[in-house]
């Protein structure tokens, strides 16, 4: 299970809405300022995600919670979002190539069918990802509720020297 810390920002009957920051994979190595991935990662700000988590009890706003996602859920979403459009683009290019051979035309029809099939793949992936998102087995699970609120747990280090 992949876990992340989040802050509660609201809720309703049987659910909480939590806010967490999406973390990029880049940023921990020494050459992050010099490689292409690090430069792109630093250019775009980190995304704030609001996630709806089922929970029966009341938790006040600002409380830190730990939520978890099953690995297989993330793999399902990744497969849908990346594989569907790629598969449709490949099939579209093959069909376009077949039409180009049969009609003795240039590769313009191949490019057009590639882009059209890719667009259809994106639409289908969008539909299935939203369908999977509504499935209660694939949503985030609340693992732990911390007692202290966010403001009580945050401390600011005002010294200019490193700690020992």
UniProtKB/TrEMBL annotation:
UniProt keyword Kinase present: no
Taxonomic superkingdom: Bacteria
InterPro entries registered for this protein in UniProt: RseC (IPR026268), SigmaE_reg_RseC_MucC (IPR007359)
Record keywords: Membrane, Transmembrane, Transmembrane helix
Listed transmembrane segments: 79-103, 109-128
One Pfam short name: RseC_MucC
Entry protein name: Sigma factor RpoE regulatory protein RseC
Organism: Candidatus Enterovibrio altilux
Lineage of the organism: Bacteria, Pseudomonadati, Pseudomonadota, Gammaproteobacteria, Vibrionales
